[in-house]
Write the structure tokens for this entry.
Amino acid sequence: MADPAVTSTNLYNTTLQRWLKGYDDQTTEIHPLFAMLEAKGRIKYNGSGKFLQRTQRNKQHSLEGYSDYEVIQFARQELFENAKLPWRGLLMTGAISEKESDENSGPEAKVRYCAEKLEIMKEDADDQLGAIFYLDGNLAANSKKPHGIMSFMGYTQGSQNATDAFATVPTDSYAELSTALGAYGGTGVNSGATFRRNDDSPEWNAFTPILVNATYNDGGGATTFAASADKLIGRADVHANHSGKAKDSLDFFAMRKASMLVLRDLLRTKERIVAERGEAQSAIKAAGFTGAIAVDGVDCVIDAHVPATDGSGRTLHAIGWNCDRVSLTVLKNGNPNKTNKGLKFWQHSGVWEDPNQAVFKYWLRNYCNLMFQPRYFAMISSLG
């Protein structure tokens, strides 16, 4: 087909077209989670066993008062629960016919598509890997996929009062354990207005995430994320840290572009935008995301895979991540001999020739899952 921009047929038939080698990838998005877990050593390889399991201590021994010569009572204390997840698989496949391979092998190949097939697949798989961190692995639609953070962010919609700053009824199940308040004993107040008091016992919220209501009424009218994003982020950050130690602080908040724009607009009105580009002062900036915005000491960054809504269909504004309290465990190292560092996460087949079709077949796969400690994570959503 002649180029419509060329008016002379002689020119078209006698002049070689100049092509640039290679290609520009227009499909990549922003995915900070994998980089953060790698930086903190939270990706574990060569897992084993029928399940991914971790022992959770959800209770403490009770400290009682005692008077002289009093008869002492002894009883067994059940302090531990087992969090258990199945291994979930991820797979990507591709195929190239022998004819395609031959046609793409000479100097006419602008992109060495066939020779670089596996590497292109690896880039695609890595880019799409960011989505697993936000999956609800309890849904039937995700029954073959890993358990992401939305697996334990469920709550009973309609149970909120206008003045509730937090979800009053977290109701989810993750790793065969309940996220409900008081599921493992203890004492506390099941009220969104006073949720996470200092005098709540540790057992009360041992496996419960921080679910912040973005539209609560604080007495001066209903709030919105646009008007109070900085306060909501600060509230989630404070309540997600149960010990005051650095490892229990949120590393960053991930949000969609729309929420980030709202946050920027709010901070701009308060003259508070701080984005120290090129200076890797925080963990998320050290991982390469230098455009993160700090709010009350915690960074906020865009993540392309943050869901638009929570499990109840309400607007989701931000997810607070503590990367010291989650691990991604892989059943097998895809690159035990370190022959290709780029394919460490994925088990792969370079070329598998199928003589029945004269086709070269490629695949990347692995079995893995994510083990969270839910109480150290937060969600800011219009709970309603």
